Hints:
The structure holds two protein chains of two kinds.
Chain A: H1 2-9, H2 18-23, H3 25-58, H4 88-120, H5 126-140, H6 144-156, E1 166-168, E2 172-175, E3 178-181, E4 183-186, H7 190-218, H8 224-243, E5 248-251, E6 254-256, E7 260-262, E8 265-267, H9 269-296, H10 299-307, H11 312-342, H12 346-349, H13 354-365, H14 368-397
Antiparallel strand pairs in A: 1-2, 2-3, 3-8, 4-5, 6-7
Chain B: H1 2-7, H2 20-27, H3 32-59, H4 63-66, H5 69-74, H6 82-106, H7 112-126, H8 133-152, H9 155-158, H10 161-177, H11 192-219, H12 223-238, H13 241-255, H14 265-291, H15 294-302, H16 307-322, H17 324-337, H18 349-357, H19 366-399
Helix pairs in contact in B: 6-8, 6-10, 7-19, 11-12, 11-14, 11-18, 12-14, 13-14, 14-16, 14-17, 15-16, 17-19, 18-19
Amino acid sequence: MSTSRQRGNSRLPNFKDLPTLLRDARFWRFAAQAIAVLLVVLLVILIVDNVIYNLRQLGIQLGFDFLRTQASFDIGETLIPYSPADSYTRAILVGLVNSLRVTVLGLIFATMLGLLAGIARLSSNWLLRQLALVYVEIFRNTPLLLQLFFWYFAVFLKLPGVENSITLPGPTYLTSRGVFLPWFNPTAGTGLWLVLLALGIGGAIALWRWRVRLILEQGRPGNPILWSLGPLVASGLLALILTRTIPFSWNLPQLVGGTQLQGGLRLSPEFSTLVIGLVVYTGSFIAEIVRAGIQAVPRGQWEAARALGLKPGRIMQMVILPQALRVIIPPLTSQYLNLAKNSSLAIAIGFPDVYFVASTTFNQTGRAVEVMLLIMITYLTISLTISLLMNLYNQTVQLKER
Amino acid sequence: MAQTDYLSPTTPPTSRAPSPLEWVRENLFSTWYNGILTIVCLVAIVPALISFISWVIGAAEWAAIAENLRLFFVGRFPRDLYWRLWTSLGILAGLTGISWGFARRNARRLSRSILIVLGVAIAAVVLPLGLPSRWLLAITLGAAVGYAVGRQLPPTISSWLPGTWGLAFVVILWLIKGGLGLEPTITNVWTGLLLTVLMATISIVLSFPLGVMLALGRQSKLPVVRALSILYIEVIRGLPLIGILFLAQVMLPLFLPPWFRDLDRVLRAIAGLVLFSAAYLAENVRGGLQAVPRGQAEAASALGLSTPLVVMLIVLPQALRAVIPAIVGQFIGLFKDTSLLSLFGLLELTGIARSVLAQPQFLGRYAEVYLFIGLIYWVFCYGMSLASRRLEQKLNVDQR
């Protein structure tokens, strides 16, 4: 034993030492890593070599200079100014803004729907419980792409034309040309209104947290929601007195001549499909996560809270959800990431998101490598941002052990 | 003697089934807000249900489905080669029978209803394809005989079951693809549900070793190996699947040497799915690895096993067993995700649906066609999740 160790430590192992060396864990630790690195480096060299060779055969050069050339394709929906004369960079930026718009809206509504459906799954009302179950099982077990096709071709494009559109109170018009919603027009006082309202909201949140803390720590009774209404109403009144106008005027969609809709906010069928599809699909997953999280809270917590005389709504809000959040946040984060990534299915229904624009760019320029790199960087950035934010939030809800 | 009084079985409290009225009051109108909720729900669903049913019976044209059933299920697979599909089904039925019988022996009460539902679902797919009755008989018999054999299986042989499944996978692939004595079919005829099932299965099986390797790499104490694994897993998981499929369809040919470049589209798709699925599988397996108590590995190394042996014989089997539900979940996800391949010109279930919709006589029949293939996806995915949930419950009860 001791001899072998001595030999293993000798500085220049000769051929006889090989079996000893092969039995040495330290050697293997080093060798395995060296082999792994070697394999990966070899693979990368092989791929790069092939790519260079193949691209030369096809007569394509690498480089991002094509991004500055004129895109010369039109984009159906833009939030920032864009014309076909702009560069590919601008086009991709337009797509990115569109992607972010869908993702942010989708995240908000999917969370709301998922939370509602998840709580409904545990309701004492049999009908509501079954409805939530049916919703979850249908949408979780069919492909998102199929759902998008269904929403787009069988729902949104099948809506009646403008002449005999479906009118909901609001007025909101559902037509095959899109959904027309009432929207706002700014007035002279809008700026001041917004500033004061922001202050009011900040005050409301602060008051709400303060009252909740009093309830939790000192057992004082009270209704935090009523308290937080105070600053909101006060800021609204103040703004009304100062500006003497309402914050905005309604911009209502109007039928002009029976064949055209003007004004309001138009959501294109593609945009509506993508948001609804993503929300309904992701919501069904979030519902299950919420349900599992709530069920993970020990039953005794319910019973204890009820014994203290808290009302069901208050129990959910102050006892159960804060504890359930610890279980909910990590899987919720991955659902958020899925939603962001799934927004790339926009291409299937022709909504110009960043993937769609990048793909068009590829079709026009043939720059596969560069476009792929752009797509990777974009989505990795979005994914990393979401998981960073959610991890920060996660730290605030986790149990703090002292 | 007084003890017997305590031990004697007491009659259980009589439970009376509630009358319908009581049930309604308890479940629908227990409080005032429950009452309102019930009424709101009813107002929302009843008209929707009525109009849906009247659409299904009246306005919908189901001819688009009825005339294309074959196309949906097996696509363009040559009709005179259907016997290969039936044989594959027979092999699957027999093996399922054996496994079921064996599992049933371990866990006494294994729900029979799943098996019945499974049988009915398969029959619903197969019968419209004109399955000859002698084949149907043979397949059913195979399942029954398999079940009987499984009940009697000695443990020495039952440990070969996973290997047999692997072998069956290869044999079925050979039957469908041909070659080695059978007339080969080109992958262009693999379409419809057949292609969906094949791609999902092949991808999950092929991604399995890669995923396990990545998981081990991520948990490894070697910093370089760990960093490389993390890089791969996080990059792939940060990308949308559609991007990875783009990578596989467009860039894989660029990555490969010129003499290897005209890979057919199905193989490229499978490569993309494997790359994608391995990263997710790795995270699932990592969860399993973390669940194995550290003492297991330490005890094994104390017994003198080398690190690879510890991993292969002690840690991995326990880890994989712990993550079977997660892997089933991933398979379900992959099954749904194969639909994205229709965007790359592959005619799997969704792709076939689009080609049916392009037939001039069925233009615009979106609702019917998409509802129908949605139902197929749903039956498969829901069936799998139900079966895995039940199996897990029963097997767990038995273990403890």
